[in-house]
Amino acid sequence: MEKFVKLTSTVVPLPIENVDTDQIIPARFLKATNKDGFGDHLFADWRYNKDGSPKADFVLNNPTYKGSILVAGKNFGSGSSREHAAWAIAGYGFKVVVSSFFADIFKNNALNNGVLPVVVTPEFLNEIFQSVSENPNMTLTVDLENQTITNNATGKSEKFDINVYKKECLIKGLDDIDYLLSKKDLIEAYEASRTF
Amino acid sequence: MNTLFDKIWDAHVVSTIENGPTILYIDRHYVHEVTSPQAFNGLRARGLKVFRPLQTTLTADHNIPTLHQDQPVKDPVSRNQLDTFEKNARDFQLPLFFPMGHEKNGVVHIIGPENGFTQPGMTIVCGDSHTSTHGAFGAIAFGIGTSEVEMVLATQCILQTRPKTMRITFDGKLNKGVTAKDLALYMISKLSTGGATGYFVEYAGEAIRNMNMEERMTVCNLSIEMGARGGMIAPDETTFAYLKNREFAPKGEEWNKKLAYWKTLYSDQDAVFDKEYTFDASEISPMITYGTNPGMGMGIDQTIPTLEQVDEAGRISFEKALNYMGFRPGEKLLGKPIDYVFLGSCTNGRIEDFRTFAQFVKGKKKADNVVAWLVPGSRKVEKQIHDEGLHEILMEAGFELRQPGCSACLAMNDDKVPAGKYAVSTSNRNFEGRQGPGARTILAGPLVAAAAAVTGKITDPREFLS
Ligand code: SF4
């Protein structure tokens, strides 16, 4: 997994609430046998017409907005536990998703795939949407070490929470598998010590 | 003063991360074709091997047809997933691989126990939520996501936060005509689909002790439908007798050693659970569901709740469910015509279920208006159906047997119930579209399914029992 320490980027605003995993990645894409290419299907039904042409009014198809931070409305990632949703977000190139509330399973799946979910207050979220609408080139800075997010248009900052273990994983670029692999000696010692 | 859960969990902790999860060692990993391909790709990308190949059992089940298994699979997307599965088993040198047609092939939660892979005191995972089934042997068994499948393949461990514990006790005996499935549907209707979220459940009491292993598996299987992480039952003589001489169960001296350990696996008298429920088993009737989640169940002779009986917050989804099902509030369902019967799945696809079904339909005839899919949970179950002469009984009554697989439980293959049709199903989920787009699922046990299959309508099986 790539390391994540600090990131400053323009943002892609998605001011919709309750974006569920069926919207993030529709069910018909689940018969795949690899994780690649899910980024192409991210928000497929919002993003493309039936004939595959892009829908001009969807934010991912608007060249004004780009960047590796997705800012979304409350309760992002609800619904089914499909890990494919996190693969789609990461595959598209997002490193951070900002919202005022995340569904539990999505949060874990995102972290397992190197995407940092940042929970902000509803006021802070609204201010971001406000700043973007005034200037699409505004940037956010996410500092994982200090657990702060800054709206560089207004200069305002907020602290965010993250599990100590998960923070360390992201900073070191380790995912759970790397972490477990680094404990192989412990695991083998455990196996050797078993008496039952 | 430990619970059964505590004893097994504590014995599998490799270490605990401060302010973080536990590294939990996994004894047995079951793998199927749908949730594993990305995990194997992950191993390839990191240049890793499977850490403990002999603790990994693979079977193809979700995506396979239940007819003509000797021929190539027609659907190219399904075939690709199955071919990929086989390639992964080969590339990663996993000998316990049971593809379609193999004598040990079948639904993952059925082949595990029947071959003796599942044993008391184990930790067991699989990329499938009904892994809770294996808890019937006194094991900690639960479903995981694809990243976690990769972790277990790579390290035989998983990172987990310890769940809370719950005990559900069933005092008394089940009445005649009432099955383990009825007990489980009754429990879920009382606790609701979210009632055990965050908990690991232990089932106890006379009614549970009296059950054979097949019945215990049915109960543990459905734990997930009330939100529980898993369900488990302390092992006893019934468990040991089931396991003895199974192919992958311990033998000789090893058996004696294990048996001594297994006998220590029970909740101590003074063990404290985070939550406890007690039910009277003799109050349970044959059950059916009327809605679109497994918690919407009732005694087969009862009426669907009226709008007034549903609390206000739940009314919109209650009405939406009834609309989908084509039922009305306050309605009785006895006597309603049905179209399909599905006997099978990891909930009710074991030999006991086929014995129950066959015994009931013996000397009767399948109703003309019913399409019946009888799908054994495994090749071994299929063979046993033949060996015990159940096949003739079923044929005489006008039924045909299909080949093993998940089949209409999730309708990923061709076994889809057409839109608007009613299916009395022994599987585990009655969600909208689960058995095919627009399909209307009525969950029930094997006896209710048998009664529906011969009468063509929702029928109380007790009417036929003298
Ligand atoms: S039978 Fe149904 S619930 Fe069981 S493993 Fe197959 S799809 Fe899952």
Model description:
The complex is a heterodimer of chains A (196) and B (466). The model of chain A has no long low-confidence stretch (mean pLDDT 90). Chain A contains eight helices and seven strands; from the N terminus they run βααβαβαβαβββααα. Chain A has helices spanning 21-24, 44-47, 84-92, 104-112, 122-134, 164-172, 176-181, 184-193, and strands at residues 6-14, 69-72, 96-99, 116-119, 139-143, 148-151, 156-159. Chain A has a seven-stranded mixed sheet. Chain B is of the alpha/beta class and 466 residues long. The mean pLDDT of chain B is 95. The chains are: A alpha/beta (196), B alpha/beta (466). The interface between A and B is medium-sized, with 28 and 35 residues. Iron/sulfur cluster binds at residues 61-62, 107-109, 128, 130, 345-346, 406, 409-410, 427-428 of chain B.
Q: How are the SSEs placed, and which strands pair?
A:
The complex is a heterodimer of chains A (196) and B (466).
Chain A: E1 6-14, H1 21-24, H2 44-47, E2 69-72, H3 84-92, E3 96-99, H4 104-112, E4 116-119, H5 122-134, E5 139-143, E6 148-151, E7 156-159, H6 164-172, H7 176-181, H8 184-193
Parallel strand pairs in A: 1-2, 2-3, 3-4
Antiparallel strand pairs in A: 1-5, 5-6, 6-7
Chain B: H1 4-10, E1 13-16, E2 22-25, E3 28-31, H2 37-46, E4 56-59, H3 76-91, E5 97-98, H4 108-114, E6 123-126, E7 140-143, H5 146-155, E8 157-160, E9 164-171, H6 180-191, E10 199-204, H7 206-209, H8 213-221, E11 230-232, H9 237-243, H10 252-262, E12 275-280, E13 287-289, E14 297-299, H11 315-325, E15 340-343, H12 345-348, H13 351-361, E16 371-374, H14 379-387, H15 390-396, E17 422-425, E18 440-443, H16 446-455
Parallel strand pairs in B: 3-4, 3-6, 4-5, 6-7, 9-10, 9-12, 10-11, 15-16, 15-17, 17-18
Antiparallel strand pairs in B: 1-2, 2-8, 13-14
Helix pairs in contact in B: 2-5, 6-8, 13-15, 13-16
